[in-house]
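Title: Prediction job returns without error message
Component: structure pipeline
Severity: low
Priority: P3
Assignee: unassigned

Description:
Job completed but the reporter wants confirmation the result is attached to the right record. Sequence as submitted:
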Amino acid sequence: MKVGKQIRGIIEAIKAGMFHESMKGEMTALEARKKELAELLAEVPEDVPDILPGASAVYAKKVAALTAGKRPG
């Protein structure tokens, strides 16, 4: 996750002895964004399939074409 990498970068910079007041503001914004993203992910239903809604129709059409000896299109 991009936000996590950015937070890790700031932490590593602080560990290396670098600190600027602007880093504090950036870290606060990144932590808020991380919390927001976690809340959004928590709201996603677990039973939603990861496939397109019409994928089964496309698959059925291709299987029918193959069964009939035609090239699927």
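Comment from assignee: result matches the submitted record. The two ends are 37 Å apart (CA to CA).
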